[in-house]
Amino acid sequence: MCNAEPDLSTDALGLQERKDMVNQHVKSLSPKVAGPPKADNAIRLDKGELPYPPSRHVIEAIASAARTLNRYPDILGGELRGALANYTKAKPEQIIIGNGSDDLIELIVKTFVQPGEEVLLPVPTFFVYWHSTELINARPVFVQRTADFGLDVEALLQKVTPQTKVLFIANPNNPTANLVARETIIQILDFSDRPRADRLDCMVVVDECYYEICQETVADLVDKYPHLIVLRSFSKSFGLAGLRVGYAIANEVIVDYLYRAAQLFPVSKLALVGAIAALEEISYVEANLDQIRQERGKLGKALQQLGFIIYPSATNFLFVRTEPLGITSKDLVGALQEKNIFVADFGGKPGLDEYYFRTAVGTRTENQRLLDGLQEAIAARKIDRS
Ligand SMILES: Cc1ncc(COP(=O)(O)O)c(C=O)c1O
Q1: Is 80 exceeded by the pLDDT of residue 10?
Q2: Mean of pLDDT values over 6-24
């Protein structure tokens, strides 16, 4: 037996050759970074989560289903599909269930877009749209939103080419929190009927991840517009981000093709059962969301009093502009982190300058800790400058 240390250098293992085998477009994706572990008492407002734990009913349903984990989950989402049809008023065949809506975003891109083709993205918006596009070596085409983060419909139309296959509209949008009016979405959907030169002939995905918070939807239009796909999630309003369940509502022919491209068992049995239990107890969801709406109003006002610009929110988070205080969001987010308070820095992200962060609405105590942390960071900054 030899006790010498193994030579792990790239060349000795032939790793360089393996690296060369990785697809070029995958090499250009950013590495995923977990970041340092957060302390138990950390104020976690960076991921847009709900601060409340799942209901007892959901926990018990999951615990009970754990006894049958030797079996695979049902194909096509089993009973959850029927429960969602009931909840959404769509037909079961118009629903596809995925491993979070992130999974469905990737599935939509895989199903409709070829390498080299284009995905239209009004920015700022949710990064998974362009990550999924780059993953298949297709091209995200960014179109700047208006100053108040609405859709610039004319600018969108100007970017349409025969290569444009999908348009993603997060409604409400992440990170800007605002809603686009139903009429604007219908206007965009109707562009598919225009003469060729003025036509938007692609799939239109309306991502309603925050539906229960704002109650605005175009899901009722899937029978009229076969190029409309509506996305929903259990991560936000239902407070089940860790469970990973999302779903899409679309014409049944489109759903059939999406399911062909999907994995056979993309959603775990525990996730399917947990989502059914959550739908059985909508009153728990509504009570949590009432609480969030109240806290959102209070937090927004208090942030304004500190001198920030706050944008109208139809979500469980607030989008904050730090520019009036002359502090970049990077500096502010860094100062909060040192106090164990986490919000998401959006400074410099596509479509944005250096002065934006997003904070989830937490419990009253969490929100107060955030406000105290910000106040201290602003005061420290003033002292530094004097
Ligand atoms: C607009 C939007 N779509 C989709 C998602 C992802 O949701 P899920 O947890 O269901 O993958 C998010 C999460 O932040 C989001 O903001």
Answers
A1: no
A2: 79
Look at ligand 1, atom 14, and give the residue with the nearest C-alpha.
48
The atom number, within ligand 1, closest to the CA of 125 reads 1
Distance 193 CA to ligand 1 centre (A): 30
Domains of the chain: 43-52+283-385 (3.90.1150.10), 56-280 (3.40.640.10)
Pocket test for ligand 1, best of 99, 236, 361 (most atoms within 8 A of CB): 236
Q: Kindly report the protein residue whose alpha carbon is nearest to atom 12 of ligand 1.
A: 209
Give the 3-state secondary structure of the chain: CCCCCCCCCCCCCCHHHHHHHCCHHHHCCCCCCCCCCCCCCCEECCCCCCCCCCCHHHHHHHHHHHHHCCCCCCHHHCHHHHHHHHHHCCCHHHEEEECCHHHHHHHHHHHHCCCCCEEEEEECCCCHHHHHHHHCCCEEEEEECCCCCCCCHHHHHHCCCCCEEEEEEECCCCCCCCCCCHHHHHHHHHHHHCCHHHCCCCEEEEECCCHHHHCCCCHHHCCCCCCEEEEEECCCCCCCCCCCCEEEEECHHHHHHHHHHCCCCCCCHHHHHHHHHHHCCHHHHHHHHHHHHHHHHHHHHHHHHCCCEECCCCCCEEEEECHHHCCCHHHHHHHHHHCCEECEECCCCCCCCCCEEEEECCCHHHHHHHHHHHHHHHHHHHHHHC
Give the binding-site residues of ligand 1, using a 6 Å CB cut-off: 48, 100-102, 126, 170, 174, 207, 209, 233, 235, 241, 246
The model carries a pTM of 0.94
